[in-house]
Every structure is written in structure tokens, then in C-alpha cells.
Amino acid sequence: MNSALKFTGSPYTSFMHETKIKLSNGIELHVEMGGNPEHPPIMLIMGLGAQMLFWPDFFCKSLIDQGYRVIRFDNRDIGLSSKIRHAGPRLNTFKLMGRFALGLGNQGAPYNLYDMAEDAALLIEHLGLEKVSVIGASMGGMIAQILAARYPEKVSTLGLMFTSNNKPLLAPPFPKQLFSLIGRPQSSDEEGIVNHSVKVFNIIGSPGYINQIEIIQTARKLYRRSYYPAGVLQQFLAILCTGSLLPLGKQIQQPTLVVHGSRDRLLPPSHGKAVAKAITNAKFELIDGMGHDIPPHFIPHLSGLFADHFKLEH
Q: Record's InterPro entries (predicted)?
């Protein structure tokens, strides 16, 4: 572990400590770590437009209690990490989405998921860690696949949650779910943004397991911490301009566990199955009743699955 790093207590979570890390590519990432420094590290990579606090504290604590050290961070363009100012031409998102669904390449985004995977690789290096286990959720799972394929010496085991390899002609996201994620709020004041976030949580989350008071509190906390809608769009363009990850599947040699919710309507379960099929010997676990989120109800089971999967390697 890099001993020169200065950590302070997280303002959000009693058992995590935070710091900012300037990477050699110029990006600055806001990072939190928790758990015993002697324990094997798990790096968590979050999804589209999602700050690191989307990794529930209960999930992080469950992994820590099972003998791991947990690292979570804001991806570039979100939360308290570097924002990418881009003066290039405006891209036609619908045209890009059409080409993407057919497996055709797209150009023109300020960065793509390979750049975001490089951020994660440089972060592992900067933290002075040799190898980490990685859990990536949604877009974070796409980044995790690239990380495992491109930087195999940095990743010991791989866990993927409700993600995709974007191979051509997979079942598309249900329109209601997709447009809730990339749609615009009715107003840009705090109430408008919080109401919009709550609506999104309800549309993409696990039906019957969503605590309304909790999601209002979370939405408010996230809004006050950082609100940067341009970053969400740029991350979406990064996905569209990365295209299919199917060819990477063969390069991923690490033991891989793919977990997907049966009620996920943003990325239907066929996406997770496609990922597991593309990666040699990957295990696939369908969680009955789970949507595109990590509700408390499922956390003991989920954290147990990942902790057991990673233990096989340590």
C-alpha cells in the first residue's frame, strides 16, 4: 500500500476513509477505502452516472466483515472526480444508439470505456496494490471486463453485476427504463432533481424492495454532494463509442462470477448470460426478484456470493 497517501474520515460513512488521487494521465479520482489494510482488496466500479455512494454502505460493510478491504471511487466525470470539458461537436445520441445496437462502431465521444479502465488500472498502481479483486456494476461491469482483459496482472478475480458485453442484437433495454436514466428532470432545482432521481430509482429498481424514504434521502445526499448532468451524457456516449466487448471475453482468464437480477428491465438478464457465455468458465447466478439496483434485502446473499467467489483465489 502506498504509505504517502493522506486519508481523512469519510463524511458519509464511519468505517471508510477518503482521499483524492491524481493519476499519471491527469485525471483526479475521489476515492474511499475501508477495512483492514492487511486484508485482500476489492475494488468496486460503479455504473453510468452513478457516484461511488451508489455502492450501499451495507454492501461495503458486509464485504469488510467477511475479511476484505474495500475501495470505491467516483469515475471520471461524476461525483468529486475530474470533470471532462469537451468542446467537440454535439453527437446525435439516437443515431449512435441505432448503430451501437447493430454492433457498428461509433466515434466522437470525449473518451471511451477503455480510457475509464485505464483510470482504474492507474488507481490500482497508485494505491501500491499488486492485484485486486474487482466488482463492476452495470457500466462499471463493462469497465471491469476491459480492466481484466487489458491489465490481467492487476486483477485476480472478477465479479460482474447486472452488466453487458454489448454484443450486437442483444435484447435492448426497455424504453421506459432507458429514457428514465437519460431523460431530463422537469426542473433543475434541488426538488426537481431529487424527484427525478426518485422516479429513476423506482423505474429501474427491484419491484417490491424499494424503500421510498431511503431513496429520497439518498437522492438528496447525492445531489448535494455533486450534480453534473453533462458527465452522465458523456459517460453514456463513452459506452456508445466503445461498442461490443464480445472479443474481450476470450482474453479474460480470471475466475469470473456474473450476477444478474431476474427483474432487471434496464439490462435484461440475457445481457448477463451473454457475458458469462463469452468468458471461459464464468459462473452465472440469477437473483430472483432483483432489478437494476442493490437493495438491502439482497445484500447478505450478494456479498456472500462475491466473498465466497474471491476466497477461492486467496
A: AB_hydrolase, AB_hydrolase_1, AB_hydrolase_fold
